[in-house]
Amino acid sequence: MQNKKYTLGAWAAFLAGLTFGINSIVVKSANNVGLHTFELLAYQMIIPLIYFAIRSIIKKDNQVDTNKKSIVKNIYNWIAGISVVMTSLFYYIAIQEMDPSLASIGLFQYPWLFILFGYLIYGFKIRKIQLIAIFILWVGSMLLVSASLQEITFLGSLTGILAGISFAAYLFSLRYVSHHKYTKPFVFLIATMIALLIIIFNRSSINILSLEALLFGMITATLGQIITFELLSFAAKNSRPVIMAALTTVELPVAMVVTWIIWGPFPSLIKYIGLIIMVVSVIWLKLDEKAPKKAKLKKAI
């Protein structure tokens, strides 16, 4: 029975990574039919907000904090809301500017950025083994970049890296968000407000009410936020951390390989080597990751 539980959890982790990778392909397909990132962004936040609000109302959990004020007062809830919308915004712009295989290079810098946040904010130590893994990750990234220089744009590279920074901030904040049944809706409420503000300032150049925007918006929101959340939640409860960390990394090769198959060009040997190195180093950093208790903020110099 226990083995079956771990098997199901492992499959959930694998499917979560697979879904993340497929979602990036859907985003690029939306760009190819003329949709802008801003047109997807609203649905990416509003639909999960509605889903998680309903889910929180229905779900009963007697072990969570019942003080609603704790949600508003916890700074990490706000950071999570801001960083989740920024991750989608920057990553989708990177995909719009380049193909998903290149955009994902910037996004997957998040493991070492995550470690850096821990060091800068709370003074968590960076071990030599982590530095080695980070160096290997950079080597793999540089191999992929060097083999794709003609396809890379400055805006795409910049937003890809910013997506990695935002995602690292989001993952870091999730360690310290409120343990309350309405935390997830609150996080997406903040994200939705920011997304709507961005759309208001760009309303003259976009049409979020078009059929294409509605269709692709619902698909990306379902794949990128809802399904992956449920799969990761199930995997976290029913699989070993080592297996979960390794299998969720399938997003990176899926995004790259599917991109190469659909849009080309056929990858060189250097790209394959760079991809393998990146995957190994990301898994290494994930497996080495520990969850220390929240420490005191470092004193300002």
TrEMBL record:
<feature type="transmembrane region" description="Helical">
    <location>
        <begin position="269"/>
        <end position="287"/>
    </location>
</feature>
<feature type="transmembrane region" description="Helical">
    <location>
        <begin position="242"/>
        <end position="263"/>
    </location>
</feature>
<keyword id="KW-0812">Transmembrane</keyword>
<feature type="transmembrane region" description="Helical">
    <location>
        <begin position="213"/>
        <end position="235"/>
    </location>
</feature>
<feature type="transmembrane region" description="Helical">
    <location>
        <begin position="101"/>
        <end position="122"/>
    </location>
</feature>
<dbReference type="InterPro" id="IPR037185">
    <property type="entry name" value="EmrE-like"/>
</dbReference>
<dbReference type="InterPro" id="IPR000620">
    <property type="entry name" value="EamA_dom"/>
</dbReference>
<feature type="transmembrane region" description="Helical">
    <location>
        <begin position="185"/>
        <end position="201"/>
    </location>
</feature>
<feature type="domain" description="EamA">
    <location>
        <begin position="8"/>
        <end position="145"/>
    </location>
</feature>
<keyword id="KW-1133">Transmembrane helix</keyword>
<dbReference type="Pfam" id="PF00892">
    <property type="entry name" value="EamA"/>
</dbReference>
<feature type="transmembrane region" description="Helical">
    <location>
        <begin position="75"/>
        <end position="95"/>
    </location>
</feature>
<keyword id="KW-0472">Membrane</keyword>
<protein>
    <submittedName>
        <fullName>DMT family transporter</fullName>
    </submittedName>
</protein>
<comment type="similarity">
    <text>Belongs to the EamA transporter family.</text>
</comment>
<feature type="transmembrane region" description="Helical">
    <location>
        <begin position="154"/>
        <end position="173"/>
    </location>
</feature>
<feature type="transmembrane region" description="Helical">
    <location>
        <begin position="34"/>
        <end position="54"/>
    </location>
</feature>
<feature type="transmembrane region" description="Helical">
    <location>
        <begin position="129"/>
        <end position="148"/>
    </location>
</feature>
